[in-house]
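Our platform keeps sequence and structure together, in a single record for each protein. Nothing more is needed to write down the fold, since each code stands for a local backbone conformation. An entry from our holdings is shown next, in its original layout:
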Amino acid sequence: MDIIQIENLSKKFDGFAALNNVSFNITRGDFFGLIGPNGAGKTTLLRILYSMVVPSSGNIRIKGLDLRKDYKKIKYILGIVPQDDNLDADLSVLDNLTIYSMYFGLSKKESLKRSEELLGFFDLSDRRNSKVMDLSGGLRRRLMIARALINNPEIIMLDEPTSGLDPEYRHNIWNKLVLLNKEGSTILMSTHYMEEAERLFKNMVILNHGEIVVRGKTEDITRNKKSLEEIFLDIARK
């Protein structure tokens, strides 16, 4: 069953086509990837999906709901991890979770319970009272993902969540995301790391200049090529 349906999606900024007639579906329980060079349209697509950018044309349905008309309902089933760090650096780790939970109407008791569960899951329990400004980049990214899960979302959207992290932190986040997917979460994620794409994604689209140039199962896409890195470089040269 398709949980996300994207049909003929386009976005223009001052005449520049960041996305041009993009269409694909994502099934429930998938770990779906967006791949492409800088400027390919990955971030624009994700921002449209979580209503930070209004599309120029096209239709999007999430769990059967029209994104334009029903975002207030849709937001309760989404967990969003943007590319930029937007944590409150002056607050503690725990407060970043509990205050954010108010956006979803969680009670104080439920918020604390859920926050403690997430801190444990992401190995942050011993930092619950630390100020965010004192955390390393890897710990901040873990906290951003934890915050995105505070409402127990059915769909998790991540924009290059491991960008700039060292291999240890990157692998730690990979393991957490794989476990979340196995537990039933549908994940949509963009990345520049080809190893990450091959390791995590079940299905993917590769974007270039705002258009889909490759789509399908990851294993099928890589079957006749040495790696996604080779595909990516071929696309980047065009």
Q: What stands out?
A: The chain has one domain: 2-85+155-237. The beta strands are 2-13, 16-27, 31-35, 57-62, 65-66, 78-81, 155-159, 186-191, 203-208, 211-217.
